[in-house]
Amino acid sequence: MNIQAYIESGILEEYVLGTVSPQEKQEVECMSHIYPEIKEELLRTESALEEYALKHQATPPPSLKESIFAQMSFGTSAEEPKAEDAAEQQTVNQTDDAAPAEPVLREARVIDNAFERVETQVVTPAWAKLAVAAAILLALFAGWSAMQMTDLKSANNEAVAKVETMQAEMTAMKAQTEYNQALASLFRSPTYKHVHMAGLAKSPASAVSAFWNTQTNEVLIDVQNLPAAPQGKQYQLWSIVDGKPMDNGMLDNTFTGKVMKMKNTKPGAAAFAITLEKEGGNPTPTMDEMYVMGKVS
Fold first, then answer.
1. Interior angle at CA 65, CA 63 and CA 68, nearest 5
2. Are 41 and 6 in contact (CB under 8 A)?
3. Exposure class string for 129-159: b at 16+ Cβ within 10 A, else e
4. Which whole-number Å values give the CA distances from 296 to 67, 175, 273, in the listed order?
């Protein structure tokens, strides 16, 4: 059962105002015993209506009390004993010579309703009841709207997060695809000579590929495995031309997953190597810091 829809139907306000049918009254009482939410809303509605009635109750005018007391039969009750007193007085005079006078006991008379409390009933106008019901419905609608807005905002934030995650994944996939295509193109190209640089004693697991364009002497490299450069250090690429090392530039510290363009070499390069140098590089290689090397076949 949709409890919220039942509460928003307005039947609880009608129950409190006493405008429901006997069957609906029994239904509301039954539902309030089964569902605590309905019972709580019913008590809240009754409390709101009671508070409104007390706040707007009308005080009886002062003349009402005088008018009520004026209608009481004090005058008639007071005149009746006069006739009886005259008859009793006459009987006493007639028997005055025959017997001693005896006291005459009068019967006490009770005046009905003389001090009965008059109660007045405050009647709440129909427009006031409708105003309370409308205010309650408005409050319920405002609460429901706030909940809907909160849920909508949360769902929107989740959707935005998912879209951003998907965009990041697609960007990464695109970059990976472009990287793979570039490598495949280099391996298939007849103008580029592939030189595999294997790890040396300094780092046996290292591996780097160099692609040398024998027509333009352009050099590209792809790092498959190379330790991250320590702080203040940077990798430097060398080509061996005529038995002498030639500087081919510094590697970016973020070298994985991309093909890097280096400085051109000269014709007749016999080998390529990478050393770990100070940041910015050295004019000559540090042989003890050579990580990979590969001969041109």
1. 110
2. no
3. beebbeebeeebeeeeeeeeeeeeeeeeeee
4. 126, 29, 11
> Can you state the angle between helices 36-55 and 22-34, rounded to 10 degrees?
120
Kindly state the tokens that stand for 229.
Answer: 């450069």
Q: What are phi and psi of 288, to 5 degrees?
A: -70, -15
Q: What are phi and psi of 181, to 5 degrees?
A: -65, -40
Write out the residue limits of the CATH 2.60.40 domain(s) in the chain.
Answer: 192-295
* Residue 50 neighbours by CB distance under 10 Å: 12
The highest-confidence range among 95-99, 159-163, 289-293, by mean pLDDT, is 289-293
Task: Determine the 3-state secondary structure of 29 from DSSP.
Answer: helix
pLDDT 10s digits, 216-258: 999 999 999 999 999 999 999 999 999 899 999 999 998 888 8
Round to whole Å and give the CA distance between 192 and 205.
25
pTM: 0.46
| Domain topology for 192-295 | Immunoglobulin-like (2.60.40)
- The Cα-based distances of 274 to 3, 33, 225, 235, 250 in angstroms read 73, 82, 12, 7, 9
Residues in the chain: 297
Scan for tokens 């129909």, then name that residue. 126
Structure tokens that stand for 101 in this block: 């006078």
- C-alpha to C-alpha distances, 162 to 144, 152, 171, 202, nearest whole angstrom: 27, 15, 14, 44
Name which of 215, 201, 194 is nearest 272 in CA terms: 194
Characterize 68-98 residue by residue with b for buried, 16 or more Cβ atoms within 10 angstroms of its Cβ, and e for exposed. eeeeeeeeeeeeeeeeeeeeeeeeeeeeeee
Burial class (CB in 10 A: 0-12, 13-18, 19+), 208: buried
Q: What is the pLDDT of residues 72-86, one digit of tens each?
A: 655 444 444 444 554
**Structural contact between residues 240 and 293, judged by C-beta atoms closer than 8 angstroms:** no
